[in-house]
Prior knowledge:
Layout: H1 2-8, H2 12-23, H3 36-42, H4 46-54, E1 57-62, E2 65-70, H5 73-83, E3 87-89, H6 108-121, H7 124-129, H8 131-147, H9 152-176, H10 183-195, H11 206-222, H12 236-242, H13 248-278, H14 280-288, H15 302-315, E4 318-323, E5 327-329, E6 332-334, E7 339-343, H16 389-406, E8 407-411, E9 418-419, E10 424-425, E11 432-436
Parallel strand pairs: 2-7
Antiparallel strand pairs: 1-2, 3-4, 4-7, 5-6, 8-11, 9-10
The structure holds protoporphyrin IX containing FE (HEM).
The site of protoporphyrin IX containing FE has 24 residues, from helix 13 and helix 15.
Amino acid sequence: MLKRLRARLPRRSVVYARARALISRHPLPPGDLVRLDVVEKQDRTFLLRRATEVGPIFKALAWGDLWVCVVGLERGRRLLREHGAALRPVTLQLEPLFPKGFLRQMQGEDHRRYRKALLRAIRGEDLAANRRGLDTIAADALARYAATPRADEDAAADFIRTLNAAASGMLVQIFFGSQFGTPAFDRVMAGYQRLGPYGLVWQPGPAQHAAFAEIRDFLLAEFAGAAPPPGAEASILGHLVREGALDATLLGNLIYMVEMGRYDTYSLFRWLAKYAADFPALLEAIAREDASAAPPAGRRSLAEAFVIEALRTDQSERLTRVALRDIVFDGLLIPRHATVRVCLWEPHHAAAVFPDPFRFDPARWTGEKDPGADEFAPFGLDAHQCPFGDLAIGLAVIFLRALARAWVPVATGEGLPVKGLYHWEPASRFGVKLRPRGPMA
Ligand code: HEM
């Protein structure tokens, strides 16, 4: 009863915004208080249209709170640069699990220090060193899926589990060096199964605390010896241990980066599978590409172009921040407590930059010139930019090639994309049948 009453009362962000608007010299952003969490579910292009109707900065409601949306990458970057200290990223609160919490929400010196240590441990050459193992993880997950008989209506859920297993395994190998097929790999994977059995748990409870401690203690024991465990030299944890840079904050972060990153990664794999089923000729062309040959300088392979196009069309959506104090930006008041949504998906669908923007077309990325950073920024715009952008693309290419090489995916259920818990996803019914790819002429 009390809960229902509270849900009906306007939230602090809305009450505060109304009060500030009465006395501020600067107006609130335009736009009536439509419920974004409701309207967007029916219309993915809602924000794009709203920006043309009322201007690139506008207000709305989402889950009862005041949201301010900012459309335009240059504008979003400028907002974050000018007011970054007053804008706190919205993410998991992990301080109860390890000191200082998640890198994503650190600010100032802590953020600079831990991010620097992490960047030093992310090495491009590790992807090459681990390529065979990563490929085996993807190929094995797909082969197991193909070998299991199931009704079409079970394909969607089973396929998500398969992609989750592939993405989790690949990240476990590259982060911790645990090699597929070893007891150590199985132990860590079982820990992750307990940490988020049905997806990312936004508010970690006792089960997450226990699973987190289990993974942490196992990794500490594994790396306690004078030498890293076999295969772990080319891993992020391996580099941090060797350089003496590891502490409880970094280890906690690595464990939770895999937890959050596996969701991002398997969601990307799911979009790749969807477009692979939609465009079989493109997948066949990827199967024909020589994966061991580097593309000519300044060019990229079709597989990589396919992945980048999926980042543009679907995977990358927005940055969210909470205003810690009143901000005046481009003459408008962004009041304290408001959630600021810096839109990425909308600029990635600007027709002036991406002609026919709703068409999936990897050829956009195989030419000589890419769009600029103010036109395409799937991994963010400020000091919190994704440190794993190249790695995510690399893993996705490995997955896509493993799919293309052996299988022709055929969709078992179709429909329009849906707004999932955190991101847009292919239709809930989207699953695949994997037909073996015959020998190619
Ligand atoms: C699969 C595609 C991915 C996309 C599209 C993506 C996108 C992004 C974006 C847009 C940000 C900026 C967030 C902000 O400014 O609020 C970000 C930050 C971050 N991402 Fe990713 N990401 C991906 C994969 C991953 C993976 C695989 C990992 C790790 C396993 C990861 C770890 C992180 C971390 C730790 C940050 C915060 C960095 C900081 O605060 O300094 N991401 N990502």
